[in-house]
Amino acid sequence: MKTPTTILILAPHTDDGEFGCGGTIARYVSEGARAVYVAFSAAEQSVLPHLPRNILRTEVRSATAELGVDNKDCLVLDFEVRRFPELRQPILDKMIELNREFSPDMVFLPSANDTHQDHQTIAQEGFRAFKRTTMLGYEVPWNNLDFRTSCFVDIGGEHLAKKIKAIGMYESQKHRTYADAEFIRGLAQTRGVQIGKKYAEAFEVVRWVIS
User: Fold this and answer.
1) What share of the chain has pLDDT > 90, as a percent?
2) What is the DSSP string of 123-175?
3) Angle at Cα 55 formed by Cα 164 and Cα 102, nearest 5°?
4) Is residue 1 pLDDT above 70, yes or no?
C-alpha cells in the first residue's frame, strides 16, 4: 500500500490518537505524509485537581510533535467531555468542515465498538462525514469489548519509540496502567506476531477506498 498523502486523526480527547495509532502516525510522517491531528476535547473537567486545567492542551502539542505532527496541524477543539452524544450535530458539522479543508485520503478514528460515549459519537459521526474516504478504527483495548483486527500497519522500532515518548509527554496520564511503556511495547509485539513482524498496530477497516 502506498503512503497516504494526508492522514487525519480524529481523537475524542487529547491522547486517544497517540494511544490508538501513534506508531502509524510516526511511520507515515517519516514517509512524507502530512498528519492532521484533531482532538475534540481537552477534557478540562476530568483533569486531576492538583494540575492546571489546560494541561492537556499543552501536553498534546508536545506529544504530537514527537510523532512529527506540525504544530499548526494539531487542533484542539472545545467540546465538553462526556457530552458528545448531545453535541452530535455540531461535531458532525465540524467534521464536514475538516473534510473540506484537508481532503484526507485516510482517516483514523475510534472503533465503532468503543464503550466510551464520546468515542462512540466520534466513530459514528466520523463515518457519516468521511464515508468516501478510507477509514480505520484504532485500538484502545481498555475501552474495546470487541475489536476486529482486520488491518495491520507494520511499524519499526523507531516508530514505536516515538509513540512511547509521545505518550510519556502526558504527565497528567502517568497514573494510567495503559500508559506504561512495557504495556505499549507488549501490545505492539503481539500485533507484530500476528503478521510476522516485530511490531505492528491493529485496526478495524471501517471503509477502504481504492483510487
Assistant:
1) 89
2) HHHHHHHTTTSEEEEEP-TTTBSS----EEEE--HHHHHHHHHHHHT-GGGTT
3) 70
4) no
94, three cell numbers: 465540524
Strands 134-138 and 200-207: what pairing? Answer: antiparallel
- Take residue 138 and report the three cell numbers written for it: 484504532
Q: How far is CA 8 from CA 2, 99, 144, 182, in A?
A: 16, 9, 21, 27
Q: What DSSP designation does 195 have?
A: T
Tell me the β-bridge partners of 125.
none
Closest by CA to 58, choosing from 45, 74, 70, is 74
Residue 161 neighbours by CB distance under 10 Å: 17
Q: Cβ contacts of residue 86 below 8 Å, gap of 6+?
A: none
Q: What is the pLDDT of residues 74-103, one digit of tens each?
A: 999 999 999 999 999 999 999 999 999 999
The enclosing H or E element of 22 equals: helix 16-30
Q: Which three cell numbers stand for residue 150?
A: 482486520
DSSP code of residue 114: B
pLDDT digits (tens, 9 = 90+) for 145-197: 899 999 999 999 999 999 999 999 999 888 899 999 999 999 999 999 999 99
Query: What sign does the CA torsion over 24, 30, 34, 40 have?
Result: positive
Q: What is the DSSP letter of 179?
A: G
